[in-house]
Amino acid sequence: MFNVLVSDPISDFGLQQLTSAVDVEVTKKTGLSEEELISIIGSYDALLVRSQTKVTRRIMEAGVQLKVIGRAGVGVDNIDLDAATSLGIVVVNAPDGNTVTTCEHTFAMMMA
Question: Which of 58, 73, 75, 89 shows the smallest number of beta carbons within 10 Å?
């Protein structure tokens, strides 16, 4: 079983592929302080964040099973990349996630 913690608000539709996957357990706990996250991260293999959660070295060190941190969005400025690299934790993001939507919105604004 691969345990994923989602610590920022992400729609259920956005999590559908994860929640329907075989051998993946997804837990949503949003609004956690750094200390609260440190106290529970040890049993998770993956952490999924947006921009609210600041993923510090302390959090990663407490995540003894942590293999990957996923950022649902473009930037990774809320994740300590140096710490992740030194701890062997892979960090991924979704840089093209809003490209089409942004283009459509821009075009619609030009037409208005």
Answer: 75
DSSP labels for 66-83?
Answer: --EEEESSS--TTB-HHH
Long-range contacts formed by 96-102: CB under 8 A, 24+ apart: 97/72, 97/73, 98/74
Supply the mean pLDDT for the chain.
Answer: 91
Domain interval for residue 70? 2-111
CATH number, domain containing residue 64:
3.40.50.720
60-107 per-position pLDDT tens digit: 999 999 999 999 888 899 999 999 999 999 999 987 665 566 677 777
